[in-house]
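FAQ

Q: What does a record look like?
A: Structure on top, sequence underneath. For example:
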């Protein structure tokens, strides 16, 4: 297994939100290695780019969701997953917990919370 890249993959099916997250990550001085809007694309990009951190929306286009993608990525890549979700439903929270994410942030995400969790995840991934 090769080392993880000091980069962030953004998995978000709302284009404007993905662009906003990418700009915020770049403002932190980090690289965005790509964006994905489906679980399958997220897994493929994670395997290709091997990012240290992935910002993962829970709800994605297609039959699979963010937890499905996170489980596949965790098994094959080992990136630190930070779920970013607008849902506060207990069913959603329970489902997110199935993958033991690094963190969960609720939309709208403040700049401070995003920076803290991404920085912590980079440290945990050995990429600080």
């Amino acid at each position: 297994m090769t080392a993880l890249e000091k980069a962030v993959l953004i998995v978000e099916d709302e284009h404007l939100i993905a662009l906003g997250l990418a700009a915020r990550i770049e403002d932190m001085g980090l690289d965005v290695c790509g964006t994905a809007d489906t679980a399958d694309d997220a897994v493929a990009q994670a395997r290709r780019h091997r990012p240290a951190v992935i910002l993962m929306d829970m709800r994605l286009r297609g039959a699979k969701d963010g937890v499905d993608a996170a489980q596949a990525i965790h098994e094959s890549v080992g990136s630190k997953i930070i779920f970013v979700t607008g849902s506060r439903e207990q069913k959603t929270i329970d489902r997110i917990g199935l993958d033991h994410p690094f963190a969960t942030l609720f939309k709208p995400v403040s700049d401070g919370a995003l920076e803290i969790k991404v920085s912590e995840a980079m440290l945990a991934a050995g990429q600080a």
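Q: Is there anything notable about this one?
A: DSSP finds five helices and five strands in the chain.
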